[in-house]
């Protein structure tokens, strides 16, 4: 172009400094725009005759890229407040999944690790897809993990919007954000149809499939995909135009058989992320939870018009170690903050005998539901329906959603579509109610409408309410949706069945459900929800037998696992805390020696997670035998400061402790 006198040497130099071809093209076009019709005509003739690829870039790709950028800015910039999202601009750089992340429920992961990961490295969001050093290459497959409610989808929105504004990763020409919710609506797709269906303005998908333009494909929410990914039996496909099953399409893209030149970014809850073989993942990152200052800012944002209330809520959260750990997750912090705020605002109207600060999970969710059911919501005016009519409508909605939640939980289904709603007899008009708006989120796209619960725990609490209510009159096993099973009569038989299934389940996905189910038998929860979702004092006839059954599950042997700890949590939810209090008192007085029976060992394992006595130092001096030490190993590895003086340990115990210190999950920093 310089030889044609269309550009000066200085202008050509500036254009050439741009990092990629499309940016060079943009620089040249910008310069020529002010040089009149002769320059543009000469440029067009020159490019048409000498460089068809460049001509395509200017006439086809460049307008397509601009349209794509405008579309993403419009969609992802909506309602995205970048101020509170500073936490998401730095991700933890992790080396694969730990054992607990692969096996345990999200909440059990947070409780065991105290919401902290033993990770020293982090990576800023703008460098997520860049090489880590000058001699390495950019990652092709990146996976970002995080528990439910930590902000994975928000992170994706933040990245896409920041990229679309041209602030990061300008070397990437196309960022293609897709959700597994969207992919659930297809049976078969080709790689090119996948792109055209989601982004109709991309009229030349071959420029992406052929690798002509650097592309980042984002697949958000693997845990919401309807079909498990099976990499061992993938049918190989290398034709971007060939339609195949959607799960096969995803595995072929990740394996590099399709869209070989594209980078792929998958987000997922940890347990679902282990579907992708570690050998295929080039970079794994994790979203960290809220720190102390961020939690305060988060609650201040929730209660903008009442900072005193925000401070009181934070005080109550900090006073309960277990709750404080859980509130490092923004989704859970919002639910807890709403519930405690509701309690504090209403406790002055009632006697202290009938109201207690919510401490257990079941109490927090009972207040949340009571707030939702009564229409007493911070963001909406109080509803004018008569209370009786409101109660009846609410019972109908909760009953319908509860059945959907329960059977969805059994099928590991967390996203629902209109056909699911109809299959469970849910009137779609009910979904427009304000109550549903407080429990369900709705996502409307051109080709589908998806519904999902505000947080996984909302689905689990609704499932527990459904099961509790149905178990009182059911004559068959409720876990068999068809109803074809051996007769099972009486609430207690159904309660035992739920607990046993939770204890036997390999994936641990029923653990929080049975905690909620146990909590519905507590006197405090009955007081809160009687008249709304429960019958007053009906728990009295079941509670003592349920406690005996749960205790029986702990008395078997010295094998302590996360299942054992979860059973102790169930006893806490049901408000039976005598065993835990006895062991905690002995820990304070350093008098545990000789009293560590199987049940007391279970209580001790539970206290290692939740007790303030263990916060600074876990003192287990002069009380452990080989068997007890062996049984507690899975819990000891999460103690930061562990004191084991005067236990007369021999070599076999030292070998056990040595094995613990080498585990990836191990958080022990100081050992005496």
Description:
The protein is an alpha/beta fold and 672 residues long. The chain has four domains: 2-50, no CATH class; 73-289, 3-Layer(aba) Sandwich (Rossmann fold); 301-349, no CATH class; 361-374 and 386-545, no CATH class. Helix content is 50%, strand content 9%. The protein has 31 helices and 15 strands. The protein has a seven-stranded mixed beta sheet with strand order 2-1-9-3-8-6-4. The chain has a three-stranded antiparallel beta sheet with strand order 10-12-11. Helix 4 (52-76) crosses helix 7 (152-164).
- Proportion of residues in extended strands: 5-15%
Largest β-sheet summary: 7 strands, mixed
Helix-and-strand structural type: alpha/beta
- The averaged pLDDT comes out at 88
Low-confidence stretches: 379-385
Strand order of the largest sheet: 2-1-9-3-8-6-4
CATH class placement of the largest domain:
Alpha Beta
Q: How many domains make up the coordinates?
A: 4
Q: With helices defined by DSSP (H or I, 4 residues minimum), what is the helix count?
A: 31
Q: From the 3D coordinates, which CATH architecture of the largest domain would you assign?
A: 3-Layer(aba) Sandwich
Rg result: 29 Å
Shape: globular
Distance between the termini: 75 Å
């Amino acid at each position: 172009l310089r030889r044609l006198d269309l550009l000066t040497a200085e202008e050509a130099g500036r254009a050439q400094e741009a990092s990629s071809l499309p940016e060079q093209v943009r620089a040249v076009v910008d310069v020529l725009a002010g040089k009149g019709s002769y320059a543009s005509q000469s440029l067009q003739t020159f490019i048409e005759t000498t460089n068809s690829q460049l001509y395509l870039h200017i006439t086809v790709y460049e307008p397509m890229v601009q349209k794509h950028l405008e579309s993403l800015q419009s969609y992802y910039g909506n309602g995205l407040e970048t101020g509170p999202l500073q936490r998401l601009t730095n991700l933890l750089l992790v080396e694969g999944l730990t054992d607990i992340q692969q096996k345990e429920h999200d909440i059990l992961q947070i409780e065991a690790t105290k919401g902290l990961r033993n990770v020293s490295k982090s990576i800023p969001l703008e460098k997520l897809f860049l090489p880590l050093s000058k001699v390495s290459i950019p990652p092709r497959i990146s996976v970002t993990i995080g528990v439910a409610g930590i902000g994975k989808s928000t992170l994706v929105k933040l990245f896409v919007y920041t990229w679309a504004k041209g602030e990061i990763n300008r070397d990437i020409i196309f960022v293609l954000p897709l959700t597994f919710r969207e992919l659930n609506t297809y049976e078969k797709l080709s790689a090119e149809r996948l792109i055209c269906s989601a982004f109709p303005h991309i009229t030349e998908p071959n420029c992406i499939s052929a690798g002509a333009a650097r592309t980042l494909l984002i697949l958000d929410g693997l845990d919401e995909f309807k079909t498990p990914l099976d990499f061992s039996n993938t049918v190989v496909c290398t034709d971007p135009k060939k339609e195949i099953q959607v799960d096969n399409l995803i595995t072929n893209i990740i394996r590099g058989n399709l869209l070989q030149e594209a980078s792929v970014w998958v987000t997922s809850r940890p347990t679902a992320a282990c579907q992708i073989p570690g050998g295929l993942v080039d970079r794994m990152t994790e979203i960290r939870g809220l720190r102390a200052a961020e939690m305060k800012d988060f609650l201040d944002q929730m209660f903008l018009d009442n900072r005193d209330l925000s401070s009181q809520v934070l005080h109550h959260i900090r006073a309960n170690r277990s709750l404080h750990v859980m509130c490092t997750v923004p989704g859970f912090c919002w639910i807890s903050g709403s519930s405690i705020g509701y309690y504090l605002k209403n406790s002055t109207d009632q006697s202290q005998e009938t109201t207690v600060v919510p401490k257990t999970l079941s109490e927090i969710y009972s207040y949340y539901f009571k707030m939702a059911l009564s229409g007493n919501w911070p963001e909406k005016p109080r509803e004018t329906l008569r209370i009786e009519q409101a109660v009846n409508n609410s019972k109908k909605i909760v009953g319908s959603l509860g059945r959907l939640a329960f059977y969805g939980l059994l099928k590991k289904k967390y996203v629902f579509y209109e056909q699911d709603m109809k299959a469970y007899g849910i009137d779609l008009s009910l979904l427009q109610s304000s109550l549903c708006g407080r429990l369900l989120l709705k996502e409307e796209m051109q080709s589908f409408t998806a519904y999902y619960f505000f947080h996984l725990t909302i689905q689990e609490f609704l499932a527990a309410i459904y099961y509790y209510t149905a178990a009182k009159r059911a004559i068959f096993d409720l876990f068999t949706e068809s109803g074809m099973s051996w007769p099972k009569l009486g609430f207690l038989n159904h309660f035992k069945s739920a607990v046993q299934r939770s204890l036997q389940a390999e994936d641990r996905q029923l653990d929080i459900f049975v905690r909620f189910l146990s909590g519905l038998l507590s006197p405090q929860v009955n007081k809160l929800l009687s008249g709304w979702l429960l019958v007053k004092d009906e728990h009295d006839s079941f509670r003592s037998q349920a406690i005996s059954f749960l205790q029986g599950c702990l008395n078997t042997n010295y094998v302590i696992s996360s299942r054992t700890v979860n059973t102790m949590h169930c006893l806490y939810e049901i408000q039976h805390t005598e065993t835990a209090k006895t062991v905690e008192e002995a820990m304070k007085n350093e008098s545990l020696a000789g009293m560590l029976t199987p049940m007391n060992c279970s209580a001790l394992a539970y206290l290692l997670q939740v007790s303030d006595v263990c916060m600074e130092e876990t003192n287990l001096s002069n009380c452990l035998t080989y068997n007890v030490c062996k049984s507690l190993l899975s819990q000891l590895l999460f103690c930061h400061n562990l004191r084991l003086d005067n236990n007369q340990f021999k070599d076999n115990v030292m070998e056990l402790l040595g094995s613990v210190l080498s585990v990836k999950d191990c958080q022990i920093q100081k050992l005496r």
